[in-house]
Amino acid sequence: xxxxxxxxxxxxxxxxxxxxxxxxxxxxxxxxxxxxxxxxxxxxxxxxxxxxxxxxxxxxxxxxxxxxxxxxxxxxxxxxxxxxxxxxxxxxxxxxxxxxxxxxxxxxxxxxxxxxxxxxxxxxxxxxxxxxxxxxxxxxxxxxxxxxxxxxxxxxxxxxxxxxxxxxxxxxxxxxxxxxxxxxxxxxxxxxxxxxxxxxxxxxxxxxxxxxxxxxxxxxxxxxxxxxxxxxxxxxxxxxxxxxxxxxxxxxxxxxxxxxxxxxxxxxxxxxxxxxxxxxxxxxxxxxxxxxxxxxxxxxxxxxxxxxxxxxxxxxxxxxxxxxxxxxxxxxxxxxxxxxxxxxxxxxxxxxxxxxxxxxxxxxxxxxxxxxxxxxxxxxxxxxxxxxxxxxxxxxxxxxxxxxxxxxxxxxxxxxxxxxxxxxxxxxxxxxxxxxxxxxxxxxxxxxxxxxxxxxxxxxxxxxxxxxxxxxxxxxxxxxxxxxxxxxxxxxxxxxxxxxxxxxxxxxxxxxxxxxxxxxxxxxxxxxxxxxxxxxxxxxxxxxxxxxxxxxxxxxxxxxxxxxxxxxxxxxxxxxxxxxxxxxxxxxxxxxxxx
Length: 595
Prior knowledge:
6 helices; 4-stranded antiparallel β-sheet
């Protein structure tokens, strides 16, 4: 049986239209373009069987796929939010909240519609747009709604009766785990007046009473939190963000990454490089996740379910990570304020497949087939050069379409398909095949983070000092089967052995210096050697000897820092500055000896 051809829906100043993805890459004329320039929102159902949009001129329209039959039309011209239920039996709509002279208390602006009858099932007044969407389990037996100070739960599509309530003061977020009922529930409560913020996990329907939470993680320095469940609903990652970095180290504020699972395990995910957490994504197999983090060039690391690093992808100009739907390819990319570099990795072999580039892109999304993807330049992020491109993961640019220079493109989305529609295919490794969508431009001046702008030129961090990928295969190893204490002791022994090996190699490093530097160190060592009373006869003046002694101490400290760095220890910024000042110290020491 031939596999279906995924299609793309597009929304822009020219209206709403559809485009057929590979292998056809042509306009989809089965969908009659809606030319309204005021369309505010488009949405596919999660199984791809329905499509809805609001044309902004009086109607919300819903069609059935693949016959494109209109099944519902609503007179709700102000609608700017659409959400289908998982089985495509209901549609939720949201409109901006407003009050008038006649309706000082406001009117309901959120509605649930039955797609089979077209009738409104329930209406609410919901002011905020960031958490308006109703959440369902995959079988639609349980639905959750974020009310003002509680989470309300409904069962069997009966929205007139609240079956369960989760009441927490200041609760601002709720996320249901993927899968059928009963779901696991994650909630976020921000901190206030010195009290910490926290995320808690519950197993529905046990939501109240002592010990109801199966997992709890508290943290300070969090103005907001983003919760990501894995596909099995067994664990969640929480990215906490502080809007302002009080140290002045980053415009992005300050982020941390936390882990919770339904067995009660919690931990902080240790990230080796300081800086923002740009992107986090679970693998579709729910057993690992990938994180892009750290000051540019950003580092990317693969972690297992125990939050242990499995593979280091090195550093590069990137701020996004995307698994394809089958989980066998990982894309690391740099979009937005970066230059559109992409790296595609074979997850099984941990080998790089291709490195294409799509400049000025603001959007990326995998096709459901796991082989193709789309990049787009959309407004309002960029109002010029709008358009989209369709690629193959080997780096081949298959299709490119730019909208008219006087028009804008707002949104691009693939049609979803049920899991298992597209099987995993064998990965092709091309021999150096890459493609760029536009010509290379002159490189701009190097960015210097705020915390480094007042330093002398010689002490500035090397922003383009890239680290190569490193790591081992991710098959279960002996280390992963050890207990935490045994693994900790093993790592200590390995670190000690590396340090001893580096110590044995130090003479070679010293010999690599210039003869002038070696002579200066030798003279300093001779002066500090125990020599009894005769050492004062004909020796240097007392003040000069003190300076020499002080300089020699600093050089010895630098030698120790070099040994620590060689053993794998990450040095602080002030320690790195000491290393950079070694040459100046040696020069000063030599001048003192000649004086």
